[in-house]
Structures are given as C-alpha cells and as structure tokens.
Known about the structure:
Blueprint: H1 6-12, H2 17-24, H3 29-37, H4 44-55, H5 72-77
Amino acid sequence: MLGTDLPEWRKRNRFTQDALRMALGLGSRQTIITWEKSTDKLPRMVELALLALEHLPDQRKVDGYAYATADYPAQRARPSF
Length: 81
C-alpha cells in the first residue's frame, strides 16, 4: 500500500489520524501525516498492522468515533505504549 492510499483506508475503516496513531501505538500524529503525503510504500510492519486492524475488528480498541468530545483531550494525551 502506498502512503497516498492511507487516507482512503482510514475513511473506509472509520479511523481518524489520531485514532490510527493510538491504534498503532505511535507517539505523534505527524507520522501518519507524513505517511499520507508520501508516494512511497508503507513499511511492511505498518501494512500488516493495518490488515490486522481491518480484519480483526473485535481486537480494535480505538474507534475514530468512540470518544465523546469532552473525553477526547484526555485520550489524546494518554500514551498508548
């Protein structure tokens, strides 16, 4: 998968950039932004993680629409690793 395909994947699987960041255990949303602007292939481990998030929805702990607005800043500040 190319980085430029990632926004479409996110929308199809109901992930915001920040929700995907949390699901992948990344420290910064900037990583997602950088991938999305790139025409290079995503790292193989990222592709595998995306496949797992897509095909194992029961294991999904973060949903782009799961948090109430009031809870969002606390979820964003909390590191996931």
